[in-house]
């Protein structure tokens, strides 16, 4: 009986203690909510913007002093408060790009698909900026190139390395540009093009050839009676320009040649035996290329065989002896990119012969880097040509570093930061340090991370902690391996680098005036800040 009474007393004590703990916890939660709400109201009081004039790198445009920026911002940033009509190009860029960064972080945090290159390109185009001013390369063109390089919309996946996938993306971008050029030519010379009712790709190529070869006489696809006048055979011209324009199916239909068909079907990665066959054919053509009276349009056949062979010796010989074949740098780069090879280990011994040593991406990069930036930009008159060439040759880090130094009225340094975000998110910076670069793999990620961090800190100086946090998250992701870092699939060293970077950047936020308040508000709202 006594023991039963003692047990009952113990149960009563335990129940009372549990009840009191629950009451205390409820009281604490209520006091915590009241405290945070009062802090939130205080934080929303207007505060004058602070701009650190000593901050370098990519910076946001200073906002007029009449516009106040909340110390703790969870809604629109200070720049978004300004009427759109009154914004400068720099402010517009920062605003639309910032929106994409928010969407990117949200998607990555929740594990949802997101195409950053496509989104940034769309954001830029939404601005309706037309500042080409006769320049050959615009920022819109660069964003299209970035999208093609990242291959976000492609349904075809070639069985190639990441580096070769980037090369194919650069090539496809140039093909897109050539298609636009052909259409412009046809529209400018409708009578000579004689396109008629034909709307197919092959019909467009033939219309283009009527304009291009108008001085050569009747072309064979236009001849009515071959007995009256021998027609000009344009078979190889058609094949070349179909490939140059990205019309691969049409090129295959015209060619009916196993070597060319294999090149098309494999994305350019032909077997060693096929490469050797193309090399032999190219050698034969070179031996007769100086024949008197031989028509210039036959040289396209020579170009195609050299391209399919992927032979460094043949590619360099063509550039040395027949440099006039390329009238534009785009044609030159397309040929070079198409000739690049990565032969698999353990392949045929034929690839070890001198004539079949493959032309590599590093060969192209080394050649392009012989010329100074001023050569490409015409001493600054066409400033985006140089970074465009660097991106086409998969030299990503040099490209964004160059862009980041081009501030001016166009705000190319703002573009550079967001190009860096795309490249880091896709994890391709390790492929694009450039031939002979002093940067290592981790150095490339660290450089991109530093650029993004520096840009984000501009928001910090403006008092917009929310946007600063968005960019800080990207800075940490960049050094951590891009999108893989969000799911923990990056390697151990990258995960460690990301963790260290996050701690450093969060400390920057907390040490700012209102930083602790901002952190607590984020916690109350259920937002992840670590």
From TrEMBL:
GO terms for biological process: poly(A)+ mRNA export from nucleus; protein import into nucleus. GO terms for molecular function: structural constituent of nuclear pore. One of its GO terms (cellular component) is nuclear pore. Keywords: Membrane, mRNA transport, Nuclear pore complex, Nucleus, Protein transport, Translocation, Transport. The keyword Iron-sulfur does not apply. It comes from the Eukaryota. InterPro entries: Nucleoporin_int_Nup93/Nic96 (IPR007231). The keyword Membrane applies. It is found in: Nucleus envelope; Nucleus, Nuclear pore complex. Its main location: nucleus. PANTHER family: NUCLEAR PORE COMPLEX PROTEIN NUP93, NUCLEAR PORE COMPLEX PROTEIN NUP93 NUCLEOPORIN NUP93 DEAD EYE PROTEIN. Belongs to the nucleoporin interacting component (NIC) family. This is Nuclear pore protein. It comes from Eucalyptus grandis (Flooded gum).
């Amino acid at each position: 009986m006594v023991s039963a009474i003692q047990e009952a007393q113990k149960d009563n004590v335990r129940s009372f203690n549990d009840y009191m703990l629950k009451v205390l916890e409820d009281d604490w939660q209520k006091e915590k909510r009241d405290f945070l709400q009062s802090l939130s109201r205080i934080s929303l009081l207007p505060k004058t913007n602070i701009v650190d004039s000593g901050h370098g790198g990519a910076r946001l445009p200073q906002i007029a002093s009449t516009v106040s920026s909340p110390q703790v911002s969870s809604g629109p940033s200070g720049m978004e408060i300004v009427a759109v009509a009154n914004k400068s190009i720099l402010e517009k860029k920062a605003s639309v790009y910032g929106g994409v960064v928010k969407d990117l972080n949200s998607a990555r945090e929740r594990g949802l698909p997101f195409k950053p290159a496509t989104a940034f390109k769309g954001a830029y185009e939404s601005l309706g900026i037309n500042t080409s001013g006769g320049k050959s390369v615009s920022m819109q063109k660069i964003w299209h190139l970035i999208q093609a390089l990242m291959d976000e919309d492609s349904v075809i996946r070639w069985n190639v390395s990441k580096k070769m996938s980037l090369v194919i993306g650069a090539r496809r971008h140039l093909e897109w540009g050539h298609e636009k050029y052909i259409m412009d030519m046809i529209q400018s010379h409708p009578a000579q093009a004689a396109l008629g009712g034909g709307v197919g790709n092959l019909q467009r190529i033939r219309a283009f050839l009527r304009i291009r070869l108008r001085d050569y006489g009747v072309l064979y696809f236009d001849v009515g009676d071959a007995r009256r006048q021998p027609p000009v055979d344009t078979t190889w011209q058609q094949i070349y320009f179909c490939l140059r324009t990205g019309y691969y199916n049409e090129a295959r239909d015209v060619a009916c040649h196993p070597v060319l068909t294999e090149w098309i079907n494999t994305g350019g990665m032909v077997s060693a035996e096929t490469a050797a066959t193309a090399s032999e054919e190219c050698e034969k053509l070179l031996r007769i290329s100086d024949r008197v009276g031989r028509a210039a349009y036959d040289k396209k056949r020579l170009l195609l065989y050299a391209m399919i062979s992927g032979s460094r010796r043949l590619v360099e010989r063509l550039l040395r002896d027949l440099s006039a074949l390329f009238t534009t740098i785009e044609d030159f780069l397309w040929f070079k990119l198409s000739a690049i090879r990565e032969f698999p280990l353990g392949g045929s011994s034929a690839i070890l012969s001198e004539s079949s040593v493959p032309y590599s991406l590093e060969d192209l990069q080394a050649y392009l880097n012989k010329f100074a930036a001023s050569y490409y930009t015409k001493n600054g008159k066409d400033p985006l040509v140089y970074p465009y060439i660097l991106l086409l040759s998969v030299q990503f880090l040099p490209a964004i570093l160059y862009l980041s130094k081009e501030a001016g009225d166009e705000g190319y340094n703002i573009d550079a930061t967001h190009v860096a975000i795309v490249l880091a998110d896709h994890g391709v910076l390790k492929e694009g340090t450039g031939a002979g670069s002093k940067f290592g793999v981790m150095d490339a990620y660290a450089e991109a991370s530093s650029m993004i961090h520096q840009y984000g800190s501009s928001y910090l100086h403006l008092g917009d902690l929310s946007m600063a946090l968005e960019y800080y998250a990207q800075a940490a992701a960049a050094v951590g391996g891009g999108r893989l870092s969000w799911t923990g699939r990056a390697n151990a060293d990258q995960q460690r680098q990301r963790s260290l970077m996050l701690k450093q950047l969060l400390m920057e936020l907390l040490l700012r005036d209102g930083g602790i308040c901002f952190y607590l508000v984020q916690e109350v709202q259920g937002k992840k800040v670590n």
